[in-house]
Amino acid sequence: xQLYEGLSVGFYLLLMIAIGFYSYRKxxxxxxxxxxxxxxxxxxxxxxxxxxxxxxxxxxxGLPGAMYLSGISSSWIAIGLTIGAFLNYVFVAxxxxxxxxxxxxxxxxxxxxxxxxxxxxxxxxxxSSMVILVFFTLYTSAGMVSGGKLFxxxxxxNYTTGLFITSLVVVLYTFIGGFLAVSLTDFVQGTIMVxxxxxxxxxxxxxxxxxxxxxxxxxxKNPNYLDMFKGTTSISIVSLLAWGLGYCGQPHxxxxxxxxxxxxDLVKARRIGITWMIxxxxxxxxxxxxxxxxxxxxxxxxxxxxxxxxxKAETIFIYFSRTLFHPLISGFLLTAILAAVMSSISSQxxxxxxxxxxxxxxxxxxxxxxxxxxxxxxxxxxLLVSAIAVLLSLHPKxxxxxxxxxxxxxxxxxxxxxxxxxxxxKKTTWQGGLAGMxxxxxxxxxxxxxxxxxxxxxxxxxxxxxxxxxxFSVSLITYKPNEAIDSEFKEMKKTLTQS
Length: 499
Prior knowledge:
- By secondary structure, the chain is mainly alpha-helical.
- The protein has one domain: Up-down Bundle (Sodium/glucose cotransporter).
- It is 80% helix and 0% strand.
- The protein contains 21 helices and no strands.
- The protein has helices at residues 2-26, 31-36, 43-54, 62-70, 76-102, 109-117, 123-155, 159-208, 211-221, 234-241, 251-259, 265-298, 300-308, 310-313, 316-324, 327-365, 371-393, 400-424, 430-449, 460-478, 483-498.
- The radius of gyration is 22 Å and the shape is globular.
- The protein starts with a helix and ends with a helix.
- The mean pLDDT is 88.
- Catalyzes the sodium-dependent uptake of extracellular L-proline.
């Protein structure tokens, strides 16, 4: 059985590497092509790439596991994410695409901040770069943990070996092909993910007999599993919905908007992206929920194991893949988890690489570096960050959803308010942005790592609100009219209206 599954997974890994070599020939001639694809991405690739980069291993492991343990009260997170993603497409994506090009063709967020505010110092740029390095290293580590767990659970391969296999393939195609490779592999990975998350719950329900019987089994086990408000509190509901706030501050998603060919294509990308998201998130929730009924009817022994372990519950998708399907099909389904894991890791590695290269190396070490030298620096940055993330992943101490949640909150709180205000309010200043970024990031770290009685509240809420308030307040105090900023802001709004 594992032979057939291994063949499917092996073919998938080779395909990802092949895309890396294809991209090397097409779009790695200079740093702009390597880091942002030369701003030539189409709507479909942008949409699925943004979605796949967003939905890391937690989509097929962490989220179904949470649904299995808590029932449909866990779906509040799906509602919050879908609303947040839609609003991000509407308010942030077109403005960011236009403004980054208007503002001296910035290809990284820290560079955009520097250009947007016309600051003569590099405080905002270096601070935002450091935030990216810290939180993306944690984020990348969470993805690598997912890859290691997949190989351990599905193939009985040592966790460390699985971790190294996942990391090696991702680093290879990212190192070789840059942004184009990451985007094309994300497109393939996004397609695999949506197919898997549609197929698995449908087949599971058919095995049980009907959706009605599945829900009867779930209700018989625990009626609270089918109540949106049972087993939860007002604070936890608000906390789950607050995940949607994070979208406007995620560099690996925002860079997709910066790379699309034309701003007007974002309308089509939004339709594709949100449709894809509804199917994948709903499918992931159904996998966890239907798993409750399936195990109760057919596999009580595993039900008891899954009930007792959060880590084990996160493998419900793997369980279904191996129980319901022929090994060749199960191998394909298992690649959906690898797809989710790898899409996020590669995106995070590339954004971190771009920050190290464009915002630190080029700004402070070698201001007149040649395109070849910048390409080399970018690739070496990929290796450096991946090595640190692997070390952090060797002994994971938390479940996947929590690891991702902490990094998501960190970016959302540090960057989200600054992105929104810089695109919507021309009086935003670099002093306000710097203060808000620091307050947001520190609030998240303190909320997570200090002991206090308010742990039930997701750290995104205090982090985002305090960052927004700080950015707005300090900007009001420090604002001074600037003709260059006024001119670029007007040009952005004019282009936005025309598109």
